[in-house]
Amino acid sequence: MDIDDEPVPTGRSIDIELGSQEVITIDLDNLDSNPEDVLELLRDGQCKVWVWTKLAGEYWRRGYHDAAEQIANNAIASFKMNGNTASLSPIYALLANIQLAHSRSAPKLILPNAREDIMTNQKPKEEYHKEAASLINAASKSASDANQSGEPAVGMELAFLTRGIQQLATRHLDEALRSFEDVLATKPTNLVALLGKARILYMRRNFPQALQIFQQVLRCNPRCQPDPRIGIGLCFWSLNNKTKAKAAWERSLELDPSNWTALLLLGLESVNASKDGHLKEKDRTQFLFSGTKLIEKAFHVNQKSASAANALCEIFVQKGAFKRALKLAERTIQFADTLTLLTEGYIRAGRVSHAEGNFLAATRYFSSATEGQPKHVLAAIGLAQMQMNNGELGGAINTLDSLLQAPNVQKSLEATVILASLRGSPRPGISSSEMTQERARARELFDRIVKTLEIEDGKANGSGLSKASRSIGEDMNMHLEIARLWQDVNLDRTTKALQEALQISQLSGIAEPRLLNNLGSLHHLDSKLSEAQGFYEAALTQSIGSENNETISTTILYNLARIYEDQGEEEKAKDAYEKLLSRHPEYVDAKIRQAQLLHNVNRNSEAHELVKESLSSQSNNLNLRAFYTYFLIQTNLTKNAKDFVFTTLKDFDKHDVYSLCAAGLIHYNQARESRDTSSKGTEERRRGFLRSTEFYDKALQLDPCCAFAAQGLAIVTAEDALGSLSGVSSSGGEEAQRRIQSTRDALDVFAKVRESINDGSVYLNMGHCYYARDEFDRAIESYETASVRFYHGQNVPALLCLCRSWYAKAMKDQSYPSIRPALRYAQTALHIQPNDKAILYNIAMIQQKSAEMLFSLPPAKRTLKDLQRVIDMAQHAHRLFGALASDKSQQVPYSRDIADQRRKYGENMLRKKDDHLAAQTKYEGETQARLDAARQTRFEEKRRQEALEKEKMETLHREAEKLAQERRLAREQAREWTREARMNESDEEKEKRPKKAKKVKGDGPGSGDEGEAPKKKRRGKIKKANGEPTEEGEEPAAVFSDEDEAERPTKKRTKKRVVRDDDEEEVQTGPQRKKQFKSKEVLSDTDDEMEG
């Protein structure tokens, strides 16, 4: 680029005139590093500014920066001395560019506490930029002065370019773009301005336009420096055309093997290619090796490049060379000119410090990284890890939570997993309610993670999970954490999470026995006993030879024994408990289960001894004391149970929830079973109910989720224990209204308890409430659920409740079908307890009521079969009531007088059985006769209709045969007509042939010369109906009849022929023909006619 009006010499030398005749030539290819001689010549020759600039530029180009700066400073001094400062604009611009060149190799940030890359004695980049700005201002002023004096404006253009470069270096993109645009307005092909504009467009992510400008520069000057191919490659890479990007960088490196930018970019491209999971391991290793070599070479060429240092630092971190990695990380931090590079430098320095155990330095580095980019995932995770290491769990949660908050939400699975784990773990200074909320948030986060993994795994492209996502999905600890969070909320979700963890464990070849045991426990709780047994047995097998084998196998064997016990295999359970006690004689839980097995077979004294033996060794074991309380209540030792419960509350734990619930139950049962009707007894009864509610209420205060206490209070509410049940008098209407409201309130409580307790008692209590409200269908539904799901149809109270509900429904609806299930359930209960006379009384009552109900119905609403059945049942009930009334036992659960009255009533009722049977027989006989008559009438009508239908079908058949005969005759006649038409056509042709031969010359275009013999006429082939031609004389296919022709679609055809006069005469004089049927044929003319 020209400096002023004087032409610049084209050779590699400069001539300096000394005086009028002496000229000294300076060879630019052999410059001395010491510029003193050159300076003396320049001063003596009073050279123009372009000479000073040329020489200074040559020194700078050869790397003699100090010499170039010295020449430029001497030029300023020399021109100022001569008073010619207006032409110094190029010199000022040169000095500014020299300062900018220094700034490129100067640190932007100097770390005061750097351990490896110490640069405290270096001049920072900002000072160079300030000096460059000052020099640019001077250049602009000088150029302005030159313009005012009428000199060319080359200096102003140079000042604009230099200012644009300085603004670009300081990231003032808008001002830099205006500077470059000012230059391009006058010189559209200025390469420096074009390169500057292209860089700005690239930084603003306008890649297509930036690419066009870089390509324009390349077309203008293929040898341009800096190489535009670097920018072209970057644009292609950003436009996802990585093949062209790599080709551009490779071409740049081919032209300049020392181009560190091309080396670095190609190295990064190879490292990225090595991460492709679809490549073979050998290819990936080769890519990584070649990429590492290129990055190392790039750093050796330019050791002040933050990008190269950052890339090389990651390689050394992976190799474990932490000292060199730290130096490169500090180099990245100090020389980074973008926020992204600076953040990555801080992160890598933090990682190295963390690996070295220097947590204080790591915290400082990670904090600096998050200050610059608060949403940077790695920086936030690193800082959170340091905060967790320092015990600042709340700070770690806040750090990670900031990533997931708007704006700019970061979708990082790693950060979300850590945050969910932190939220789900207890930490100091947090209340139970806050912990509940935190666990709910943790569950939401884990659900989000699992859903994200499922979506990523099911993508349409089939690529599946990435390596990072796969490592998270295969993290067994994460699934265990999910199971732990759901275990108190949803056992199904817990089971699913544990199954995922088990699958991951099995991938390693060995199933974790604790996982199998936990899955067995969950299936056990869900009453899936066979599946639970399988898990327990597999866990016991896997525990052999494992760490802590004795502890794990003891727990698993106990669980397996519980499964045997629940499956009814009591001998196996007994053997397992004995095996456990032989290993650990003080294993109290096994002794408790042995006592329960003895209690089940009514060996209560032996069971009592086992429990007391266990209590002597562990009297403060609350679980053991709870079982002993249960045992005493089940063996009807209510007073002992009450004393033991109060001892537990007084001497061991007054806040024991189980003991409080047991105390409430004991007080309630004692008050409910009290038969003292005196005023003192009534008051004592009321006080007992009140104490019961107090104990239940206290239990709920200690544990708001205690479903047993809630159920106890609901029972008290449903039975109105503090109202009419306690002896408080009230009117009948008020009592009924209060009872309905109480049962409604109790049902609300039972509905919530049902979600917590998987027990039949809840459904029984709900059934009681529905029964009290006369909602018998819903009561039956609840009782059925309790009996079938929980008691397998063997619980007598549940069966009797069902009997009572069906009986009440039958009496309400006067429905005999409803009373039959009541009898069936009562008989089932009697089968289980054959000596229960109350059940026998109920059966007799139901049977007698069945007969009474059918006797009251009109014959139309009953059947003879049902009537005979209920008469038999009434006779059986008559005998039962007689036996019950004559029972000589001291105590019976019914009134003998009422039983005798029912016997007499049944006897009177059965006297009318013959009348009912006769009336029913007569009614059903008459009804059957009417039905038979109606059936016979319908049968005769059906036969008549069949006869009419048959006659109609025969008529249609005869008509069809007649029509078919007519069609057959028509086809035969059509064939006859066809044969006649053929014969007539043959006769006509015979008549035409001699006439045509006599004709010598015709008028048409197809006639020949006079001397020529007449041409032989060729006869064409006739096509068959199927399209195949027939030879001459062969009979063509038959044509259609009238009916067939009408049905077949017609096709218009034209026939080419030559009409002659004699032909027309023949046609007119020939005999008149009838209507003819033409076959599908093509008649060919003679050769002459075709030519015409």
In short:
The chain is built from 47 helices and four strands.
How would you summarize the topology of this molecule?
Elements (H helix, E strand, L loop, with lengths): L12 E6 L3 E6 L8 H10 L3 H13 L3 H17 L7 H16 L20 H24 L5 H16 L3 H14 L4 H13 L3 H14 L7 H11 L3 H14 L4 H14 L7 H21 L4 H14 L2 H14 L3 H18 L2 H14 L4 H13 L3 H11 L9 H12 L7 H26 L9 H7 L2 H11 L4 H17 L5 H13 L3 H14 L6 H18 L3 H14 L4 H13 L3 H14 L4 H13 L3 H15 L4 H16 L6 H24 L4 H12 L13 H23 L5 H13 L3 H15 L5 H18 L2 H17 L4 H19 L8 H22 L10 H15 L2 H86 L23 E2 L5 E2 L11 H6 L13 H9 L17 H5 L1
Structural features, described:
- Residues 943-1092 are annotated as: Disordered.
- Residues 1015-1024 have a biased composition (Basic residues).
- It comes from Lentinula boryana.
- Residues 1029-1046 have a biased composition (Acidic residues).
- The chain has 1092 residues and is mainly alpha-helical.
- Among the domains are: 585-638, no CATH class; 918-1005.
- The strands form 2 sheets. It has a two-stranded antiparallel ribbon.
- α6 (154-169) runs antiparallel to α7, α16 (339-356) packs parallel to α18 (377-389) and α25 runs parallel beside α27 (549-566).
